[in-house]
Every structure is written in C-alpha cells, then in structure tokens.
Fold this sequence. Notes:
The complex is a heterodimer of chains A (336) and B (256).
Chain A: E1 3-14, E2 18-29, E3 33-37, H1 44-51, E4 59-64, E5 67-68, H2 73-79, E6 80-83, H3 95-105, H4 110-123, H5 139-151, E7 157-161, H6 169-186, E8 189-194, H7 197-203, E9 206-211, E10 214-219, H8 221-228, E11 231-237, H9 249-263, E12 268-274, E13 277-282, H10 285-298, E14 303-309, H11 313-320, H12 328-332
Parallel strand pairs in A: 3-8, 3-9, 6-7, 7-8
Antiparallel strand pairs in A: 1-2, 1-4, 4-5, 9-10, 11-13, 11-14, 12-13
Helix pairs in contact in A: 3-4, 4-5, 8-11
Chain B: H1 2-23, H2 25-46, H3 59-77, H4 80-88, H5 91-97, H6 102-130, H7 139-166, H8 170-186, H9 199-207, H10 209-223, H11 229-251
Helix pairs in contact in B: 1-6, 2-3, 2-6, 3-6, 3-7, 3-8, 3-10, 4-7, 6-7, 6-11, 7-10, 7-11, 10-11
The structure holds adenosine-5'-triphosphate and magnesium ion.
Amino acid sequence: MASAIDIRQLTKVYDGKVNALDGVDLTVKAASIFALLGPNGSGKTTLMRILTTQIHPTMGLARAFRYDVDKDDDKVRKIIGYVPQEMSVWTDITGFENLLIYAKIYGVSSLQRKKAIWDALQNMGLEDVANGPVKKYSGGMIRRLEIACALLIKPKILFLDEPTLGLDPSARKAVWENLRSFKKEYGTTVFFNTHYMDEADLYSDEVAIINQGKIVKTGTASELKRSLHGEIISFCLANNGTDSMHPSTAPLRQDLNILTKIRALNFVNDATVHDSVMDVAVENGEIAMPLIIDVLRSEGISLQWIRSTRPTLDDVFLKYAGMRHMQDQSGYHYGI
Amino acid sequence: MAFNDSLREMFAMIELEMRRLKHDRTEIYTRAVQPILWLAVYGTVMSHVRDIPTNGIPYIDYITPGVLLQSTIFVSVFYGLTIVWERETGILKRLLVAPASRYATVIGRAIASGVRAVVQALIIFPVAILLGVKFIANPIYILAAFIMLFMVSGGFAALSIFVASLMKTRERFMGIGQAMIMPLFFASNALYPITLMPPFLQSIAVLNPLTYAVDAVRGLMISGDVANVPVDFMAVIAFDVVIFIVASISFRKIIE
Ligand SMILES: Nc1ncnc2c1ncn2[C@@H]1O[C@H](COP(=O)(O)OP(=O)(O)OP(=O)(O)O)[C@@H](O)[C@H]1O
Ligand SMILES: [Mg+2]
C-alpha cells in the first residue's frame, strides 16, 4: 500500500540543547489511522509541528505524499488539515462563522462554500448549535468544531494533536465515531497523538510508541500486545483439606513439584504460585490450558476457578516507554 | 497562486474582525466614551486658556483630530493582545498551517484593525459635531482624513503585532503597550503645537507618525490648510511600509 507519510532520521534540537526528536523513522500507510503514543514531553507535538510545516527539522527528512514538508511546504499545506493540542477556534463568533472564515482562507469557492460548511458541521454532529456563539459550547463541541474546520477542505491527511484531551468518555466516543465515518467516506489518512492507550487500541490501525524523541516500537495494537507475552492464566488451587490447620512443608514441596512439571510443558513460559493462586504465562492459552489442567489433575489438585488475562496496550506502553516494569499489574500475581 | 492565497487570507481576516465587532458592539461604544470625555471636558476647560496658539481655531476643534486619532490608535496599539491570545491558544498555529504567506496574516490583521479604527471614528465623529466642532464641509477632505486615520491605525496595529511577536506573554505585552501609549500622545501635536514643546520632546514628536497623521487630519477636517498634507501622507506611508515589513519578518518567531 502507498504511504502517506515517510519520515527518515528526523531530528529536532530546540535552542541547541533540547533534543526533542532524536532520529525518528516512521511510515504511515495511506488511508489508515495512525496513533503516535507517548508520555508527556516525548516529542509528539514537535513531530506533528514539523509534519504540518510550522517548524523546521534540525536534520532528516519528512514527506507527505511525496512532498517534502520542509521544502514544499506550500504544497503540503494544501493537502493537510490540522487540529493543534490547544483550543483553536475564535470564541467570540459563531461556529458557522468559524467555518466560514476558514472556508475563505482556504479558498473554497463561493458556490461550494455553503455545502462544504454544512457537510463539515454534519460530519461532526454540530448542525443544531452552528449558529450559537462558540463561547457557549462545551469542551466536546469545541473539539468537534475544530475538527470540522480541518475537514472543510477534505484533506488527504488529517493531523490531530491529542484530539480528545479533557473530554468525557461519551464526548470522546462521539468525536471518534464522527471521524471514522468521515475517514470511511473520503479515504483520509488520520495521524493522531495521544496518551490514551484505549484510544490508540480502539481506533488506530497502527501505533508507534515514542519516548524521549525516539520511536521505540511500531505495529498494530494487537501486534504490540502480543509482543509482550501471550497471556497469563491464573488457577485458583482448591484446598485439599490436608494442610488447612497447620502449615506443613509437605504441600509446599508438592507445589514446587507441580511448578516444575508445569514449567516443563511446551507452550508454557513461566509459572509462579502465590497464596494458592498459580499464574502461568503462556503464548497461546487455548492450547496450553488443557495441558496444564491435565498436570494438575494428575497431581490430584482440584480447581476453584480459572481466569485468563491478556496484556493491554497499557502494559506495552509502560514497557516500551520505559517508566517502570509493571509486572505486578500485568497479571503475574493476579487474583487475591 | 501564492498571491491569491495571501489576498484571500487578508480579506478573511478583515471579515473576521468585522464579525467580531458585530457580535460585541458594546465594546465600540465603551471605547468611544473616553475620547468623548476628552473633548467635552478637557477641550471645554482648556478652551478658556487662551495661551495655546491654535491660529484662531477654537481649542475643542483644535484637539478633535488628535483625540479622534488617539482613540483609534489606542485600539491598534493593543491589537497585539489579540495575537498574544491567539498564540496562547492554538489559533495562530492553525492559521500558519493554512496556505497563505505569513505577511498576509500580518497585513490582513493590520488592515482589519484599520477598518475597526474607522468604525470607531465614525461613532465619535457625530458626537463631536453635537459638541459644536465645526468640520470642513468638503466630502473629499473628510474622506481623505478617514483614509489617513485608516492608514496610521493599520501601521500602529502592525507595530503592535511586531511587539507581540517579541513579548510573548500578556503581561509583558501590556507593560510595553502602556509605556508606549502616553508618550505617543503627548509627544505629538495632538493637544498643542510642537513649537510649545521642549527641544528633546520636539525631536521625538518629529519622529512620531501620529504627528503627521494629526497634521493631515487637522488640515483636512478643521483648518482647511492642506499644504502639508502630501508630506504627511508620505511620512505615514513610509511608516506603514517599514513596519509591515518588519512585523512580517518577525512574525515567524511568534510560534517558535
Ligand atoms: N518551542 C520549544 N522550545 C524549546 N523546547 C521545546 C519547545 N517545544 C517543546 N519543547 C521541548 O521538547 C520536548 C518535547 O516536547 P513536545 O511538546 O513535542 O512533547 P509532547 O510529546 O507533545 O508532550 P505532551 O504530551 O505534554 O503534549 C520537551 O522536552 C519540551 O520541553
Ligand atoms: Mg503535545
């Protein structure tokens, strides 16, 4: 598939000292939704500002549909829409007027202007409030108006810098549903920055994780999740009545014995026991589960419950963005 | 191509300003209060002091052009505040991603501010007539006076945008604006002839674009003495050209 954005060894140093981007390589497929995920200060906005021709890279190259964003900035500007991280509409006029001014700036011909504006309003579900002053809009309505302004020219690439920052879950959902239907209709490439994992997970075709100006991981959300470990299966071992009154060494030895057997199984990466819950890390739970149950049965152990946990994008993010290794929360000691 | 884009952006900026004005009409009336007080109170009181050589023109008539210009230039000098606000929000980033050159944004904004100034003056004008100020009844002269008002206000708005691109915070900008506005007014011929000033103030007044604007508007609207008007226009045009260029160049810096 053709690429919409190509980035090679892009570097940005602010004021000769802040290394905001440190050799970024990225490719974004045309007509896909691409999420750039990273913690505060990781360089997301900097990258987007270079791609949208606002600032010059220190080194490296970035293209949007063959146009160099640094040298052919005039051409790039005509094919992109952009919503900055901060609020970006005039609040002392109406929503419709905001769109009208942008339509004029972009030279939407007077014949098509009305239709283009109402299309954009409709795409973002704002028809009813279009003629009200933006001052009275809610945060979610303002965000949708900003996106509507960017959709006006039916851009080939839409850049959104944290499009749902500060919105409640239902407003976020509304924004994304509108965006997806627009994307479907016009085949727009959507490039967005976020630090909401679930957003990247739910709405993007591909994710790149950026940390300290470097891309540390790319792939689809499910690829990234699989790259951590398959899943964790937790077994709550039923008390067999032999060791309930006085903790003796026999059950412990038995536990260790079982662990060794389970660890020896194919498809099993690791196993631990904690307070009569055994966590087994496996690549593929469907295949491994019957084998493990067989071993437990043969040892005469019955089970109270079984639970399987798959890694979330949070785990991926925390691992690659290198903040802390969240083994505890990722399911190893799950249950009690 | 690029030129068309820029022209469009300029017109869009003017339209934006007009629409804002339409939504907040009270602002334009409240801003008219102060100049009207200058005329009604200060002008009336000072007209009893006969020592100011006004060539036989009543003092209130004499200061009308200066007060008119001061009130519109005041708005222009603080126009940069809008730019500072648009920078703090994402509006400027977004405008700079649109296909138009940066000078179009600056000049469009400056022209828009000039148009706003004309509207402002149109409100004060009839009040001055009610206060007994006698204007020259020559529509061409009056029109020329308004063109001058438009040009000088636009120039000061560009100056303000230039200051905004250097002083990126509201507080610093306000500081500079406040520091600029009073000397601008007093070191000009708005309230008294330059000849009454101490020499160092005179040399400032000669460099002050407001002096030329006041001179032209006074000649065209009040005294009918238009001998200096061409020179006045040249001076203000030169000011506009220089400040438009400087402001356009420095505008890039504003979002970095
Ligand atoms: N204009 C600037 N001048 C100097 N340094 C800057 C500038 N803009 C950003 N930086 C620095 O560059 C680094 C990356 O910032 P950037 O805004 O790109 O991060 P981000 O990923 O968008 O963060 P956030 O999630 O908080 O929006 C940070 O260290 C920041 O302080
Ligand atoms: Mg950011």
